[in-house]
User: What shape does this take?
Amino acid sequence: MRSPLRRLAPAGIALVLLGAQLALGLALERQRARPAGILPPPPSPRALLVRGLGDRQLAYRLGALELQEAGDGGGIVTPLLLYDYDRLAGWLDAVDRLDPKSGHVMAMATYYFALATDPAKVRRMVAFVVEAFERHPESRWRFLAHAAYLARFRLHDRAWALAIARRLASLDIEGLPVWTKQMPAFVLADMGEDEAAADLMNAILDSDPGLSSAERRLMTDFIDRHRAADLNVDGLRRRKP
Assistant: This one.
């Protein structure tokens, strides 16, 4: 004969599952009812830390997860166009300050949120990356390089791309690839400043004896092409009446 407790066990399990289903439904409904800005006003790093019970890494991961899942839940996928990017930048900044060595927030900014079609939103993300990079340049230089790419090819702002590239080239960090020094030359060439681009590349070539033969050939070819282009432009200018 089965005991009364054993007869009640399936009913208890069913009640627990029903409660879990109701809790999930309420959570998804809250996601569905999010306001137009998607994210609430950004908290301070201290507020995030309190939410993480004083554990910086727990607070960082909770904040990053909330950013990652914001607007997408309960079968809803929210276009980036609907996000309030000023709020978003505030959230990114607050979460990032909890762990300046991590690249997770920087990656979200450069590789996801910067995919917005609105140039003003892209510009906001580039500005955030340029600022947040300074917190730990040793681990974040790759994101600065991507910010230069976004400024040039998504925003078509060559002057800003050049400024970012020059900041990248100024880094004195052991082990950086040579292309980090070359980026200003590439942007200058794109701006039509062939002589300046060739001179800069030549200075890098002369100052780095550790370059491989393949790198030297590529740099020499770049210098020759852009010096020739500069001579052609000068020749055309002289022929004009």
Q: What stands out?
A: Residues 41-172 form one domain.
